[in-house]
# Entry
Amino acid sequence: MTFFTVFFQMLALLIMIGAGYFVTKKGMMDEHTNNQMSGMIVTVFNPMLVLSSGANAVGQISMDALLSVGLIAVGMFVIFIASGMILTPVFEKDLKQRRIFQLMFVFSNVGFIGIPVVSSILGAEYVVYVTEFMLVYNFVFYTYGVALMEGRFSLSSLKSMANPGTVSGILAIAVILLEIQLPDFLKTAVTYLGNVTSPMALAAVGFALANSDMRKIFGQPRLYMFSAVKLLILPLLMLPLLRLVTQDEALVPVCMVMFGMPVGNLPLILGSQKGLDVTSCSASIILTTVLCVLSVPVLLMFAG
# Structure
């Protein structure tokens, strides 16, 4: 893929973020509206997109490909956890705040941003691979992530894994493995509902941008260094390992997108719950989301 082909696709996503920014500044979207919209994305539209990707991929994706992506997803989180442990002291000196940076290394926005990017650039049928990353993500978050912040592991946290995203992901993979052909009317319905996900999720990013202090986001040199490592350096170092694991050229771009996704919201939520200063985390979410418009085309250019 050429840089500019992917760049203009990413630019389209940035325009959707800009739309969210615009309607927020014009007073058409407030905190309540954003919360309601985010709730609909998580409980309805995103699960429908995941399910529709499975329904539309029946007969097109092999068991070997699903297994390969699952193993790659596990490997990605292992590398991210190790990288966070090693590199966090470079970016944060305070011991308590280091936990936030470790989470920022590990938990990327594979859902809200990953799905729109993969769907628009590579095709909706590839979203099912994103689903596998999301399933591993949920497991790692409710084990490693919660344990890191609380200082201990609790089986009770695993109950939170039973959510619409996890259920829809398992259903999507089951549909593919069992080659279940959904009726056309049902497939059309879940596809249309799923198509709502991308613009709404990106508008939510625009809302966050409109309510942020621009100086705190774009005026911290260390966050640019962190973004370069998170979005470019680490994913490119993982590319040779990826090629050793799979020879399927269709999987490489999807996995590279997953490797290079911006910081997700869960580190911010966990940090806030524990009373930590999440200013840098909030700024990193916005900064890495905006910068991925440039970094994703670079990653896909190297991925071929």
Q: What stands out?
A: The mean pLDDT is 86. The first helix runs from residue 3 to 25.
